[in-house]
Specification:
heterotetramer; A: alpha+beta; Dna Ligase, domain 1; D-amino Acid Aminotransferase, Chain A, domain 1; Rossmann fold; 6-stranded antiparallel β-sheet; 4-stranded antiparallel β-sheet; elongated; B: alpha/beta; 7-stranded mixed β-sheet
Chain lengths: 378, 289, 378, 289
C-alpha cells in the first residue's frame, strides 16, 4: 500500500527524522492559512499516488501566503497521470546546497532489507541504477542486529565528506531503519535528502510503501488507505484480488498464477482481458457473487470467463455462486465457464439445472469467451 | 527416489484441530502420507482424524520422531508456528499460509539458514511426491507417479499443468509449489539442485511468474548446472506494471520483473519455453524422447 | 548492580506488568500516609540488598494506617544480615490464591537468556532447582527473535490450567522479556507471581539485577546505585575493582585472575586477605594512589602487598605511584612489593631511590607480606 | 603447528590509530606478526606504524586478504567492530575490550555460530603462538616456543604461569586467554578440542576461576576426549559469594561457580590440580616426562 508524502513525513517526524515544517491542505484558502502560519516562503506539493508530479507541474512555489493560495488553486484539481489532485502539502521552502538519496527496500534475492545511498539525489533512483550503478552504494541489514553503526557510517561516508554531516546522516539512517522495520515497510525512501547551506541535513521528500501483509498489525496505517474505488474496496473486503484492465473479457479465476495465465491466454488468442481477478482459496457462493458484481460493473466487459481448477476451491460452490449471480444481478453479457477438479460433477449438475454448460479445458473456454465478446450478444 | 518428501517422511500437522487443518490432514492421510501427530496448544492428549494431538510441536516430535511439519495456521500466528517447528528440531516445514508479513519471513529465513533447515512457502500449495507422500493442499487425484519434476510459484496453475502432464501420460517425481510471496524459504535454484541430483527426475517443468528475478537466476543456474531437459513457462505477460497480481510477490516494479525479461532469460539459457500452458506437456514429451 | 524491589516494580509498571499499588517510605509517618492514601490494608516491606528479609522480620502487615505506621517503625532501622533498613515499600495487601515463579537470567552455558517458570513460587528458586528440579521449566530465548508467542504459551501452560490466566501470564512473560532485554538485566524475576481469588495475575515481588556492563547506556538506572561506601565509590570511579574482606593483608594487584590467585596464596600460606583489588589494565600513578588510600582506610590492614605482573601495566608507573603514596598518605603499615614484566628495571630504580625494594617472585612476596602483617610494625 | 594463529595469520588492527591500537600494533609487528592493515573510520588512505589504514574492515580485508582481526576499540563501539569484522569475512576476531554489555555479546555469539566464525574474548589478553604470531596484548618476551598449550580465563595470571613455564624450560605451542566475561566467544572446550588435534601440543595447562560452570564442563570433556596430560588451576578459592571479583564473569552466585566445585570436578576427571600457581610448571614437567 502506498501512502502520501505528507503521511510519510508525519511518520518520519515521529521517529525524529528532520523534515521541513508543513501541513496538508484540501483548499487554496487552507493552503494560504498554512503558509501564513509558517511565516516563510513555501512549496505547494500535489499529493497523488504517482511519480513524476514535479514534471507535471504538481510542485509550485509561493513566496507569500497570497501566492501560496494562488498556486494551491492551480495544483488542486489538476490531473496527474489520470489522478485528480485532492490534497496539497504546504511546507517551508528549503535552501538546498546539495541533494542525495537514502532509501531502504526488501531485497528479494538476498532475502533481507537493503539500504541504498547515492550522491545522485533528486532523480529517479531506478534511472541511476540503470545508467550509473557505480553511484549507488548498498548495505544489507541483518534482521537480527538491525542496522549496525559501522553500516550507517559507511552509508553516510558515501554521501558527505564532513564528519558533522556524516553523523547527521548516520543518525537519519538509523531512524529510517526503525521506520522501515517497525512499521512493516516494503520501501522507505528519502529522495532527495538535502544539505542546507547552514549545514543541516533534511528529508525534503518522503516515500513509504507499506507491506500489505503487515497492515493487520498497524491499524493506524491501514486507516491511511485511500484512492480505492468502491469495487476495489468491495473486492479487498471479500478477500478477492482485483485489478482493472482495459480489455473486453472479464475474468474470474481461482489462484493468482492461473488468473495471470488466463489473461495471457486471452491475449494469446487475440483478445484483451478486462481484469485480473483471483477469487482466492476458500470458495463460497458469496465470493462469486461479489466478483460478478465487480466484473459486470465495468462497461468495457463484453463477456465473462470463469476459469476454475478445483482444489480447495470446490467447483460446486462456484457453480452455485454463478447461478445465484444470474438471478440476483442483471447481467447483460454472456458467461463462459471452464471448470474441473474438486466436485466437478456436482458443479455440472448445478449448472445444468440452470441451463448452463461448462467446458473442462482452459483453451477451449478462452476461445469461446473471445467469440462471445466479439459477438457481443447474450 | 523423488525430492524432499517420500515414504519415509513423518509429518506433524500444526493446527490440526482447525477446520482447514483437520480437512487437509485427512486428505493427506487418505493419500498415504505418514501423518504421525498433530499439534494444537491446549488440545494435547486428544485425537483428531485418528492422529494423536499434542500441545506443542516439541512434544509431538519427541513422541513420534517426525521430520516434517505442515502449518495450517492463520497469518497472525503462522510465523510463530514455523519458529516453533524449527526450534523443536523439525527439518522441513511446509507453510501454506498466505499473508505473513515480509519482515517475519525475513527473520524465519535468517534462522532457517543458520540452522540448516528448510521451509517451503509461505503462501504455497505444498509438495507432493506422487504415490508416496503429499504434504500440502493440492488435489491428489491429478498427480501420477513418474519422472517429471515440477516446480512453480503458483498453486492452481500448477494443478493445470500437472493435470495435463498426467493426461499426456507423463507422471511426476515430485511437484513443489514454492510460494507466491516476495520472500520464500525454498526457491527455484534450491529445487533445481535437488531435481538434478534425483535419479527419478528425467525432466523438469519450471513455472514462473512476474516479479523479482528468481526466474532469471534460475535460468543462469540451469545453463551452468542442470543436465536435464527443462521446460519453462512464465505467467503474467499481460500484467500492468506497479500492480500486485494477487500474490504479494507478483508485481512488476521499476521496470524489472517482467514476463518478457524472464522469458528472454529462459530462452537465452536454452530452456524450452511454452507460450501457453497447454504446450507444456508436448514440449516435455518431445524432450524426454 | 542490584536495585530495590520498589525500583524494580517501578520498571515493571512502566512495561505494563501488573504490580500492587504502593510507594516507598523512609519514615513511619510517611508509611502511615501512604497507607492512608491507598485506603486498604497494606504490607510494609524492608528495602535492603539482601535475601531472606521475610524470615528476618522485614515484612509486616498493617491493617490500618496506624498499624502501618507502627510496623514501619519496627522495620525501619532494623538490621538484616548486617544491613540497616533505611526504606520500606508500602503496598496494598493482596489476597493470594496461588503462587508461582517466573524469571529470566543469562544462561552462561547456552550463551543466551533463559526463561524459568515454576509452579513452586514464593520460595528460593535455587532451593527448588536443587531439591525438585522437575518443577522448573526452561525456555531459552533467541536474541534474534526475542521471546516467541509459542514459548510464552508454553511457560504459561506450566503455571496455570485456565486459558484466561494463561494468557495473562503469557502477556506478563512478554513484558518481562522486554524489561530484561531493553534494560540490560542479568536477572529479572517475579517471585511470587500470584493469582488472586478474583482471577488476576500480579507480580507480588520484583527482583532485578542489572548487567554492570550495560549501565553506560542507561543513565537513569545508573542513578539507582546506592549502598556503596565512599571507598567503593572512589574505586569504581577510578576504574578499580575493589571488594572488602576481613583479613589483614591488603592486596593491590593488576588483573582480576592474578588478584584472586594472590588472595588464595595468602590463605595458602596461613594468612587472610583484607581485600580484592584489581588496579586494571592501563596503569597510572593516580590509580595506585587511590588504591592505597582505599586499602589503608581499612583498619584491619596490617600490611600491604603489591603484586604486579607488567604487561600493559608498566611497572615503573606502579613504582612511581607507590613512592607518591608514601609521600602523600600517612601510611602506618609496611608495604611489600612484588613486580616483574614491562619496565621492571626502571621500576626498581625508582623504588631504590625511595629506599624500597621489590621481589620478582609472587610466593616470596606473599610470605614477606604475611610476616610483616604478623609482626605488625612498620 | 599450534592453534588458531601462526605464520600464515594476516591480521587487521581495528582502531589502529588510537593510543592503545598503535602501541599494540607495533609490539605485534615487532614480534613478527603479519599485521597487514589497520582500520579506522575516516582515516582511510593514511599509514600508521608502517601499516596501511583503511576506512572499513571490508576494504582492509579486500586489499590484503587478512583472515584475522584484533579490536582495540572502546566498549561502546566494540560490539559494532566485531560485527563489522565478521560481516567483512574475517574468520577470527580477537576482542580485547572489557565492558561490553552481555546482551551485545549474546548477539555476537549467535551470529558467530551461524556464520561458523570465531571470536576470542571479549575482555581477554588475546592469543600467541610463540615464535610465530601474537594477536594480543601479552608481554611477548615471557613466551617461548614449545609444546605446552595454555588456556586461561585470566590475563596477568596467565603471564605469571607462562613466565614460570618458560623459566622451567617448558615452551608453549599456543597461549590463549579466553576472557573474563560471563559470555565469551571461545571457551575451554573449544580450545581443548584444538589442542587435542594439534601435534605440537604435548600437554595442556588450564587456568580457571570462579563463576559459571565452564571448568566443570571442561573437566567432563577432558575425561572423555582429551588424551594429553592436563594441569589445572582455579583462582578465587577465597572469594566471597555474591561479589564480583573484577571480571564480570567471576562471581559465585546461588552457591554455584565456587572454586571448590571446580577443583573437585578437575580431580574427578583425573586432571592434575595445582594448589598454588608456582606448582604448575613442576606438574607439567612431571607429566611430560
Amino acid at each position: 500500500m502506498n501512502i502520501h508524502e505528507y503521511q510519510a513525513k508525519e511518520i518520519f517526524a515521529r521517529y525524529g527524522i528532520p523534515v521541513p515544517p508543513g501541513k496538508v491542505a484540501a483548499s487554496p484558502a487552507e493552503a494560504g492559512k498554512i503558509a501564513r502560519d509558517l511565516g516563510k516562503p513555501v512549496v505547494v506539493k500535489a499529493q497523488v499516488h504517482v511519480g513524476g508530479r514535479g514534471k507535471a507541474g504538481g510542485i509550485k512555489f509561493g513566496k507569500t501566503p497570497e501566492e501560496a493560495e494562488k498556486v494551491a488553486g492551480q495544483v488542486l484539481g489538476m490531473s496527474i497521470k489520470g489522478l485528480t489532485v485532492k490534497k496539497v502539502l504546504v511546507t517551508t521552502s528549503v535552501e538546498v546546497a546539495s541533494e542525495s538519496y537514502l532509501g531502504l527496500v526488501t531485497d528479494r534475492k538476498a532475502k533481507r532489507p537493503v539500504f541504498m545511498a547515492s550522491p545522485a539525489g533528486g532523480v529517479d533512483i531506478e534511472e541511476v541504477a540503470r545508467t550509473t550503478p557505480e553511484k549507488i552504494f548498498k548495505m544489507h541489514v541483518d534482521p537480527c542486529t538491525g542496522l549496525l553503526p559501522y553500516q550507517a557510517r559507511f552509508l553516510a561516508g558515501r554521501l558527505e565528506k564532513d564528519p558533522k554531516l556524516q553523523s547527521q546522516i548516520a543518525s537519519i539512517a538509523h531512524k529510517l531503519w526503525k521506520v522501515f522495520w517497525e512499521t512493516d515497510c516494503s520501501l522507505a525512501e528519502i529522495n532527495p535528502l538535502v544539505k542546507t547551506p547552514q549545514g543541516e541535513v533534511i528529508a525534503l521528500d518522503a516515500k513509504i510503501n507499506l507491506d500489505d501483509n503487515g497492515l493487520f498489525r498497524h491499524a493506524e496505517l491501514e486507516a491511511l488507505r485511500e484512492g480505492e474505488n468502491e469495487h476495489e474496496k468491495a473486492a479487498r473486503e471479500m478477500g478477492l484480488s482485483y485489478v482493472k484492465l482495459d480489455g473486453s473479457v472479464g475474468c474470474c479465476v481461482n489462484g493468482a498464477g492461473l488468473a495471470m495465465a488466463t489473461m495471457d491466454l486471452i491475449k494469446h488468442y487475440g483478445g484483451e482481458p478486462a481484469n485480473f481477478l483471483d477469487i482466492g482459496g476458500s470458495s463460497s457462493p458469496d465470493k462469486v457473487l461479489t466478483a460478478m458484481r465487480i466484473i459486470c460493473s465495468d462497461p468495457g466487459v463484453k463477456a465473462v470467463f470463469f476459469n476454475i481448477f478445483g482444489g480447495i476451491t470446490r467447483c460446486d460452490d462456484v457453480a452455485s455462486g454463478i447461478v445465484r449471480a444470474l438471478k440476483e444481478i442483471n447481467i447483460k453479457v454472456p458467461i463462459v465457464i471452464r471448470l474441473t477438479g474438486t466436485n466437478e460433477e456436482k458443479a455440472r449438475e448445478i449448472l445444468r439445472s440452470a441451463n448452463l454448460t461448462a467446458t473442462a479445458l482452459m483453451d477451449e473456454g478462452v476461445r469461446q469467451a473471445l467469440q462471445m465478446a466479439k459477438g457481443g450478444v447474450n | 527416489m523423488s525430492i524432499l518428501v517420500d515414504e519415509k517422511t513423518k509429518v506433524i500437522v500444526q493446527g490440526i484441530t482447525g477446520r482447514d487443518g483437520s480437512f487437509h490432514a485427512k486428505t493427506m492421510i487418505d493419500y498415504g502420507t505418514k501423518v504421525v501427530a498433530g499439534a494444537t496448544p491446549g488440545k494435547g492428549g486428544t485425537e483428531c482424524v485418528g492422529v494423536p494431538v499434542f500441545d506443542s510441536v516439541r512434544e509431538a516430535r519427541e513422541a513420534t520422531g517426525a521430520n516434517a511439519s505442515i502449518a495450517y495456521v492463520p497469518y497472525s500466528f503462522a510465523a510463530d508456528a514455523v519458529h516453533e517447528a524449527f526450534d523443536a528440531g523439525v527439518e522441513l516445514v511446509v507453510c501454506i499460509t498466505e499473508g505473513i508479513p515480509t519482515s517475519e519471513v525475513v527473520k524465519i529465513y535468517s534462522k532457517m539458514k543458520s540452522l540448516g533447515v528448510r521451509m517451503i512457502g509461505p503462501n504455497c500449495p505444498g509438495i507432493i511426491s506422487p504415490g508416496k507422500c503429499k504434504v500440502g493442499i493440492m488435489p491428489a487425484q491429478i498427480h501420477t507417479r513418474g519422472n517429471v519434476g515440477v516446480v512453480s510459484r503458483s498453486g492452481t496453475l500448477t494443478y493445470e499443468v500437472v493435470n495435463q502432464l498426467t493426461k499426456a501420460g507423463l507422471g511426476q517425481s515430485t511437484c513443489i509449489g514454492i510460494g507466491g510471496d516476495p520472500i520464500i524459504g525454498t526457491n527455484f535454484i534450491d529445487t533445481l539442485k535437488l531435481f538434478q541430483a534425483d535419479p527419478e527426475t528425467k525432466a523438469i517443468v519450471l513455472i514462473g511468474e512476474i516479479g523479482g528475478t528468481d526466474e532469471e537466476e534460475a535460468a543462469e543456474f540451469i545453463k551452468s548446472e542442470i543436465r536435464k531437459p527443462v521446460v519453462g513457462f512464465v505467467a503474467g505477460q499481460t500484467a500492468p506494471p506497479g500492480k500486485r497480481m494477487g500474490h504479494a510477490g507478483a508485481i512488476v516494479s521499476g521496470g524489472t520483473g517482467t514476463a518478457a525479461e524472464k522469458i528472454a532469460a529462459f530462452k537465452k539459457s536454452g530452456i524450452a519455453v511454452a507460450d501457453i500452458p497447454s504446450q507444456i506437456s508436448g514440449l516435455v514429451a518431445s524432450l524426454m524422447k
